[in-house]
Amino acid sequence: MRIVLNHLTRMDAPRICIAGIDPRANRHIRTIAGHSNPLTRDLLASEGGPFAIGTLVELGEVTPQPEAPETEDHLFRPEQARALGRLSPNRYLELLNEHGRHRLHEIFGDELGRHNWTYAVDKGCGTASLGVLRVRRKPDLEIDDRYGKLRLRLNDEKKPAFLPVTDVRFVEADHKTIKTEVVADVRARM
Q: Which residues of the chain have pLDDT under 50?
């Protein structure tokens, strides 16, 4: 199976989560390797591995392992993964646009609930855990001063929402220290 990577997420250091779009089946795929074989930073292209945003990756043989809301989960063997090349920036943005939706409920379904300033789907519920959101109004990328967490402020709702940003590119190898220069660069380009 081949996917174009569009999610590289930090978990407890050095663990990461890897996901992308299967261009043939037109759906999101999250790679999992089982509890005894966690995915770690050494799989990132910046660390010598095959995984980088916008890269077409051959995963090898995969086995679906859906468990709501993570219906996109597929078991694979990390040692079989290999990068086949990067999409051009224009083609990558076209792919994201093809998969983008204007509302969170279009991505995550009716079981998505608002919880104060954020959203969530209960464990064991929902039809998706990955998606691409096309915002109507410019969002804000903010570092929460109280907790030191990076948040995306969505301004499309009547009441703004503050969603956690877990993209591994925004943090140092400890997965806690925010790269403020990267945040500033992205904010300027937004």
A: none
